Amino acid sequence: MKCDKKDLLLYAVTDRSWLNGETLYSQVEKALEGGATFVQLREKHLDHDAFLQEAKEIKDLCAKYQVPFVLDDDVELALEVGADGVHVGQSDMEAGDVRAKLGEDKIVGVSAQTVEQALLAQERGADYLGVGAVFPTSSKDDAVEVDHEMVKAICEAVDIPVIAIGGITKDNVQELSGCGLCGIAVISAIFAKPDIKKATEELKAATEKMVKAC
After folding, report:
1. Which residues bind 4-amino-2-methyl-5-(diphosphooxymethyl)pyrimidine (predicted)?
2. Do 77 and 48 form a contact (C-beta atoms < 8 A)?
3. Considering 5, 16, 101, 140, which one is annotated as catalytic?
């Protein structure tokens, strides 16, 4: 599966910090019911077998909703589970190596903070870029803030789709209008909310408005 620009409108990144006794599966299902268009499974602390089992279940769930499913960083596990692809950061495996391992038919997403990084990722076979953090965020301790002028410069420099990540909410997403983005990636704006489905619906509507203004 290759990703289409429209698949990147509302990209949900999982985080088990807000499970509160619920399963990650049920939270992801609520996000999909609310209209999430892409899912990235992000796990930093699960052992291999537990991660593999969870990845298989959530991959099948995403397939039911016809939504692309990628893993954060773990190329080997993505191959093992048959995920649609992988998202890698600047300190992870280089995009060209990821592409070589996964093959041409899988999705490769790359985080970028500069035009130079963005162009290199595109050249090495990335399908889309995640740019940020565009607002202050608590989800990543080492997140570097990227100003909106830089986001716009990256969007203008590359031909592949670009999404913004980092601290985005339904209240500030309009501030990204005019940057050239095709969507946003969020964690807490969906998964930290008491009503995940409703939060996803509201955020999707706000994001559609922002993208139209791009």
Report:
1. 40-44, 72, 111, 140
2. yes
3. 140
Instruction: Return the half-sphere exposure (C-beta side, CA atoms, 13 A cut-off) of residue 2.
Output: 11
Residue 47 marked in a binding site: no
Distance CA 83, CA 157 (A): 29
41 annotated as a binding-site residue: yes
Of the residues 99, 111, 152, 170, only one is catalytic, namely 111
**What's the pLDDT tens digit per position in 19-63?**
999 999 999 999 999 999 999 999 989 999 999 999 999 999 999
Distance separating alpha carbons of residues 32 and 54, to the nearest angstrom = 16
Active site residue 197: no
Tell me how many domains the chain contains: 1
Domain that holds residue 34: 5-212
State yes or no: 139 annotated in a binding site: yes
Q: Which of 42, 56, 101, 124 is catalytic?
A: 42
Residue 75 belongs to a domain with what CATH number? Answer: 3.20.20.70
